[in-house]
Amino acid sequence: MNKYLSAILSFLIVFSFTKAHAGWYECYNFKGTISKSPITISIQVREGYFGEQDKKQFNLIGVYKYDNRNNPIKLEGQLNTTTKKVLLYEPDNSGYTAVFSFNFSETEITGTWTDIKTNQSLPLHLTFVSKLVDTLDASQFKDVQILQTEALPDFYFVGVYSKTAETNRAKMDKLLIFKSDDNSLFQTIDFAEVEKNTETETGNIMTIIFDNVSIENAERKKLMISNNMDQMNGYLELGYNSKKKKFILNPIPQLGCRE
Length: 259
Description:
By secondary structure, the protein is mainly beta. 11% of the residues lie in helices and 50% in strands. The chain is built from three helices and 16 strands. It has helices at 3-20, 192-198, 229-232, and strands at residues 26-34, 37-45, 60-66, 73-79, 85-92, 95-103, 108-115, 121-133, 141-147, 155-163, 171-179, 185-190, 213-217, 222-227, 234-241, 246-255. Strands 1-2-3-4-5-6-7-8 form an eight-stranded antiparallel barrel. Strand 5 and strand 6 form a beta hairpin.
């Protein structure tokens, strides 16, 4: 097979895979309580993401926060697709600190949250809020809010996503910036002008959805937001202006991988 035929075949394989898989997101959002503490939690089904031998059965990643603390906490774990049993672990540098255990449902969920070190279990109750699934071209939704994993001491971030039946993937329409101390909405960043002027969509389907926002410099309150420039290899810069006392978006996407 000559190199030109090989290149054409490779293109057709990639094109076929892209058409067969519209998007990558399958996310479920819940509100609820651990004991009496209100929480917000979101999980994403992510087959084949982990790649580590001791995590070969893992197919979930997520994030949650206590609503009176607003410090997002990462989650990873497993959904048994037959029994619907979910185990979600809170990782840290030394292993896992806690685990959620429940049966998956798109209505009401009861289960437990267990401190792994002390083995103390607390009752868990969750109520389904919304889902974001863009794996089918026909899927459509709007105004689905997804908590982001990274946060600043004074602020946390929520992406607002949509998809129409005419498009093949979800995009982030807005970024909501909340004050951590009282959950009040501090600012809304609208990406409509970015999309109109640059013809690029915000959000990056090749990343975990909870990582669409990353902190570039916490002291300067400088953020990087995934953007689909150059086939999803770009980002937008968002920085805090202390004189104007608000975040300012650079509407021109930058090319390059985020760290």
